[in-house]
Amino acid sequence: MEGINSIGPIQTGSLPGQIGPASRQQGGGMSFRDTLNGFLGEVNQLQNKASTAVQRLAAGEITDVHQVMTASEEAKVAFNLMMEVRNKVMEAYQEVLRIRL
Fold it and tell me: Could you tell me if 54 and 39 are in contact, meaning their C-beta atoms sit under 8 angstroms apart?
């Protein structure tokens, strides 16, 4: 029977919600608020990009429907992920409220 391989470190790159070193706390890590704000900003940018692409398609500036659909789907997936994170955070908060000391 083989053992389970360990999970390696997170790869650096352009992950949703990833924030640059300027916004890190003194302890070296990012606060939850900074991470959440970065992710919300990124979702907002994707929504704006999709909206702009739809407007440009309607104006005839873009003829490639695939480009518009890709931008719209990226925005949709990011928004759905944001809502799932929100739901999980709310569930965790409600669970903490139910804890009796």
Answer: no
